[in-house]
């Protein structure tokens, strides 16, 4: 399954430009606002799961963050982001791996995912993901999850997705995570369509 999913995303990023995918954001302001909400500091360890060629890493570097990791299945996507950043890209830890199989090499203060989780449609995949969260996010750290809302798209990039509410995200994470913030976001694609997201931010309490 990982090989098939990886091949899919490599094809997407090798055949489409950065601004030709529905999830492109010129400015990832919703994510930056939530980073500020949880009090992320310059030396906070931040990981962006499914970051691909997202410009969140650019914004974090511009704001002075020094411990940034970006994980994605697609090496092509990470190469695009690295090349865009130039020399600054050497300050980022680029990780080509599957978020359901990866072994976190450190503890993170902020775990951010706006792109990967809603593609995990099997309960075994979701539980494997949660295990990585528990291995990689320190107690007292925060997880920011942006997923398609219940009235959001049913498919993305030709693949089925699972849609969520704040309540279902809370139920997925379980008692060890306390809800800090819930908000909706209407994302405009490069061609003007609107995709409805829900962002749930949780503190790991145990």
UniProtKB/TrEMBL annotation:
Pfam families for this protein: Methyltransf_25
GO molecular function, one term: methyltransferase activity
Superkingdom: Bacteria
Keywords: Methyltransferase, Transferase
Listed Gene3D superfamilies: Vaccinia Virus protein VP39
Transmembrane regions listed in the UniProt entry: none
CDD domains on file: AdoMet_MTases
Residues covered by the Methyltransferase domain: 46-141
Coiled-coil regions, chain positions: none
Biological process per Gene Ontology, one example term: methylation
Name listed for the protein in its UniProt record: Methyltransferase family protein
Protein species of origin: Phreatobacter oligotrophus
Lineage per the UniProt record: Bacteria, Pseudomonadati, Pseudomonadota, Alphaproteobacteria, Hyphomicrobiales
């Amino acid at each position: 399954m990982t090989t098939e999913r990886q091949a899919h995303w490599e094809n997407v990023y090798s055949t489409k430009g950065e601004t030709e995918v529905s999830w492109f954001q010129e400015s990832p302001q919703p994510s930056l606002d939530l980073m500020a909400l949880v009090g992320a500091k310059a030396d906070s360890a931040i990981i962006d799961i499914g970051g691909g060629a997202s410009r969140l890493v650019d914004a974090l570097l511009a704001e002075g963050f020094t411990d940034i990791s970006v994980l994605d299945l697609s090496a092509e996507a990470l190469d695009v982001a690295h090349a865009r950043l130039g020399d600054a890209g050497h300050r980022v830890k680029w990780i080509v791996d599957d978020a359901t199989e990866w072994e976190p090499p450190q503890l993170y203060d902020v775990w951010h995912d706006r792109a990967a989780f809603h593609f995990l449609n099997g309960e075994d995949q979701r539980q494997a993901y949660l295990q990585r969260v528990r291995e990689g996010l320190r107690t007292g750290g925060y997880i920011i999850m942006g997923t398609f809302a219940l009235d959001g798209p049913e498919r993305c990039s030709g693949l089925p997705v699972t849609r969520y509410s704040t309540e279902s995200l809370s139920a997925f994470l379980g008692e060890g995570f306390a809800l800090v913030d819930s908000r909706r976001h209407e994302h405009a694609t490069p061609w003007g369509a609107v995709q409805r997201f829900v962002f749930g931010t949780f503190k790991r309490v145990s």
